[in-house]
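Much of what follows relies on a compact textual record of a protein's fold. With that in mind, consider the following protein and its fold in token form.
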Amino acid sequence: MRVAPVPRAERTRMRPSTLAKTAGAAFATAAAGGLATRSAVDSKWYRRLRKPGFQPPRAAFPIAWNVLYTDIAAVSASTIDTLNDRGETDRARAYTRALALNLALNAGWSWVFFNRRMLGPAAVVAAGLTVSSADLARRAGQVNAPAGAALAAYPLWCVFATALSTRIWQLNR
């Protein structure tokens, strides 16, 4: 059985310049979050927090986030370039704005939780990040279903992070 070729306009293309921009944004988000997190994780305040039994080991977080940031950068670059190649520049700009909001919420959570030590507001930011991440995956999936599926791990992780943040807040009121 012969598979029909994908029309040129429907092929997913990713320009190195777009990937550099989305990867740079993801890296900046990771760096900003790391600045807020690094010293706080070793502080007495954090060590004294009561944490739920379902909290993963400390080493799991950088592994998970590095994989997710890589996924966010690649899927976002592909989505933006595909939309631009189709002539859907308004949708490409809307996706870019949604990505910027998402990354701001992502870095913001670390600052609210670790730097400001505001556990309740951090749980709210985590919930907002979950909604934003699901929206990003939905937008990517509308452009390219496999890309949306690849990004689905991000909102799932954020659901877990919201549950974890909320439970830490509940245990430490």
Summary: DSSP finds seven helices and no strands in the chain. The chain has a mean pLDDT of 93.
